[in-house]
Amino acid sequence: MRNKSIGLLFCLLAVSVLVPCPVPPAWIEVADAGRLLRDSRDGLVESLESSAQGGLCSIAEVLGERDHVHLQPDAIASTTVPNDEYFDRQWALTRLQPLDAWANSTCGQDILIAVLDTGIDCRHEDLVGKVAASVNVTDSPTASDLHGHGTHIAGIIAAATNNGIGIASVAPDCRLMNIKVADDSGTCYGSVVARGITWAVEHGANVINMSLVIDSPSPELQQAIDYAWSNGVVVVAAAGNDMGTRLAYPAYYSNCIAVAAADADGHVASWSGDGAWVDVAAPGVKVYSILPDNGYGYKSGTSMAAAHVSGVAGLLLTTANDDNGNGFVNDDVRMTIEESCDELGILSVTKDALRQGGLR
């Protein structure tokens, strides 16, 4: 069991330099992908059959207001403060402060972040050209998002930014892999998630985001996570909502960064997953992002918090150094994230303090 202090992931991104990012390509080729469709608008789609084995997974969040907008692009501003229409609703980006990283680094160029979730609406106006590859490992007939959860997560991580519409994102020049592991009702199984992880690693993912919780241990899932970590992938998972003292899988596994949810005042949410195995807390209360069919709206949950950490990991991977000489930088990125939470410039929170604040 991991036994450490938990820190809030605020004021982290004053860490990057180098040069502005070029525009990433709209799609990439995926080798050995079986039945493959290539489309520069919708990304790459492969349909795989899945088996319903392993522990049951439920994706839970608190859904708030939902807005719709019309596509009315403005001229792209040159300032580092983005001109996205709803940026003023994104308190998390103000706290994370990625603006300097956007302007002064390579901003996640060539970094692939795999979103293992309910799918992604690749046609969303704020995701044009952002989804590099898609695969469906569920029994749903589509890799697209009919639930809404996965699209919201994708927007937090890498929605198009400074394009005059919609929202900004943590890592706007990273690209996304849409790996549908949860069906259209938001449920999935450990073995299916494990297959999604393996597919992500074999097709070049640098970061894997799992905003989901399995209700019991899954040896197959743990093995897949260890495989990803041993291949240099940063693995991020949500610590769960309303868990009480129960463990949340896959976040509990040592090769995952386990993420709790915090609000705009820097307080960890009372419903957020708790325990010595939780590594960091990040914005997860009333987070504004995209929804299917060009929608926008608020959601709350450790799912949203995990997405912020995955975006940060994508930015840090661009300039990370292999300080221990093991041939990978995922461990260095994880250390940077966790150690940055100890000296925030805002506050540092220990596990004892969290429990006194109301966590169960």
Short structural summary:
With 360 residues, this protein is an alpha/beta fold. The protein has helices spanning 91-96, 99-104, 149-158, 190-202, 219-230, 302-319, 330-340, 351-356; strands spanning 7-8, 36-39, 43-47, 56-58, 62-68, 112-117, 131-136, 175-180, 187-189, 207-210, 234-238, 257-262, 280-283, 287-291, 295-300. It has eight helices and 15 strands.
Percent strand equals 15-25%
- Helical coverage, percent range: 10-25%
Molecular shape: globular
Number of strands: 15
Report the end-to-end length measured between terminal Cα atoms: 18 Å
Across the major sheet, the strand order is 1-13-12-11-10-6-8-7-3-2
What structural class results from the helix and strand content? alpha/beta
Radius of gyration: 18 Å
Q: Major β-sheet, in short?
A: 10 strands, mixed
Q: What kind of oligomer do you see?
A: single chain
Mean pLDDT over all positions: 76
So how many helices?
8
The poorly predicted ranges are 11-79, 342-360
User: What's the SSE pattern?
Assistant: EEEEEHHEEHEEHEHEEEEEHHH
